[in-house]
Amino acid sequence: MSRELDQASYLRRRYRGSQAIIDRRERKIVGQFLKRLGPQIGGVLDAPSGVGRFTAQLRRIATERLVCGDLWGETLQALRRAEHHDGMAIETKEVDLYRTLPFARGEFDLVFNFRFFHHIRSAEQRNHVAAELARVTSRYLIVSYYATSSIHAWQKRIWRRKGHVRSLPMIPLSEFHQLFVRQGMRVVEDRSVLPLLHAHHIVLFERQLGW
Ligand SMILES: C[S@@+](CC[C@H](N)C(=O)[O-])C[C@H]1O[C@@H](n2cnc3c(N)ncnc32)[C@H](O)[C@@H]1O
User: Fold this and answer.
1) CB of 70 closer than 6 A to ligand 1?
2) Does 3.40.50.12780 match the CATH number of domain 7-207?
3) Residue 154 CB–ligand 1 contact under 6 Å
């Protein structure tokens, strides 16, 4: 019999050792970005939500709705099972980010897309995902990606020596920003999770006036 996916034990396993440092840095930067947006944001979409690593932080500012979307129903079930909260109930939805999202234009005040772009291997899919995320937000977007950097190229060589064979796609910072600028968004801030040591970046975008 297969065991049910459990949110707490999954997150403990996934974010241990050096990953725990990265997890803490990511949560800290996300917290700082959310603080910039003000105490109340309205409707928020987290996609892909996974098992809900950021649900607690997003719930604090989502005053109208918090929708958690993921391709994999089992992660959403784990997220629902872990919900023992007096605050606003989350909505969960199976979504495929490579297709048209089942939401209206501007349906959310904030769209949050974390640790997804570095899995996308084609420019066409990157364009599609950026366009869909920008379509369904009326105002803010928080998106993370792996930025190309010479330091990380060096890190990748070390990884290869240690037996990691499959490298994750990285994209130059300006090229990543352009994906969203073309969709009417402007960069408010781009932060490296661990400057010089890790390729992961988190960007806060806001819709440009007139779009
Ligand atoms: C690395 S996890 C990130 C989860 C969460 N954002 C976080 O940072 O903890 C990537 C998630 O993407 C989901 N996923 C993979 N392909 C997807 C797709 N085409 N559409 C939506 N979600 C997808 C996986 O099920 C997984 O939960």
Assistant:
1) yes
2) no
3) no
